[in-house]
């Protein structure tokens, strides 16, 4: 394995006396795309927020680029990790460009003006996500798919090594899903960005991730390749449900259908 981007060792977390995560352990290599899957209530979003220190108070260890998560100053952590949350109906009272510009804060000093390199990163992120034409539109005037791409543009402008995404294609139509996944494929391939994405779309995980980690009841119950996910009853163990496994007619990759 190449240098680790993220290391989680026997991490557990309780919220209001309920144990949400139980002895979770895994290591994600630099440049790897890991999909986090599992049934509702498995702890997927809680795990993602723990990796970004949005949730704290757990037991065990989390390391980012070999450094304990708790050792980071917030601005230094933001240079390493960016986060795209689940799409919500509400949005901040800013334009798309203002949202993307604010994502440059880890690279700017207090009250420092935006520099040419910041402007270049902002414009590149807008272009990468196809949001150039909507750059001056208020966030609250966007559709759900447009808002999701604006949040992704902000994360890309942050230029972090690790990108955490919580259901990045949920509630998007097929065209918008394809657009978002194409952007993620590109930054993963061309820039070796480490991606950790929570998803309920198993076919998305099979088609795009290098690695799949499954949670059930807050514990890791599968950790392996997408190919291994469709073998030896792994899906039955994760979801307690049978799936029909087919083959994509163009790519030859496995495709899942609920039975």
With strands numbered from the N-terminus, the spatial order across the biggest sheet is 6-7-8-3-9-10
Biggest sheet record: 6 strands, mixed
Estimated helix fraction:
25-40%
Query: Strand content of the residues, in percent?
Result: 25-35%
Instruction: Look at the helices and sheets and give the structural class.
Output: alpha/beta
Strand and helix order: EEEHEEHEHHHEHEHEEHHEE
Oligomer: single chain
How many structural units, i.e. domains? 1
Question: CATH homologous superfamily - what is it?
Answer: P-loop containing nucleotide triphosphate hydrolases
CATH architecture identity:
3-Layer(aba) Sandwich
- Which of globular, elongated, flat, extended, rod-shaped describes the shape? globular
- Rounded to the nearest angstrom, the radius of gyration is 18 Å
- Mean pLDDT over the residues: 92
In the CATH scheme, the class would be Alpha Beta
CATH topology: Rossmann fold
Uncertain segments are none
In total, the number of strands is: 12
CA-CA gap between termini: 36 Å
Count of helices?
Answer: 9
Overview of the structural elements:
This protein is of the alpha/beta class. The protein has a single domain (4-258), classed as P-loop containing nucleotide triphosphate hydrolases (Rossmann fold). It has helices spanning 44-51, 74-80, 96-102, 116-128, 144-157, 174-191, 202-208, 226-229, 234-239, and strands at residues 4-15, 18-29, 33-37, 59-64, 67-68, 81-84, 162-166, 194-198, 211-216, 219-224, 243-247, 254-258. The strands form 3 sheets. It has a 6-stranded mixed beta sheet, sandwiched between helices. The protein has a 4-stranded antiparallel beta sheet with strand order 2-1-4-5, covered by helices on one side. Strands 11-12 form a two-stranded antiparallel sheet. Strand 9 (211-216) and strand 10 form a beta hairpin. The longest helix has 18 residues, at 174-191. The two termini are 36 Å apart. The mean pLDDT is 92.
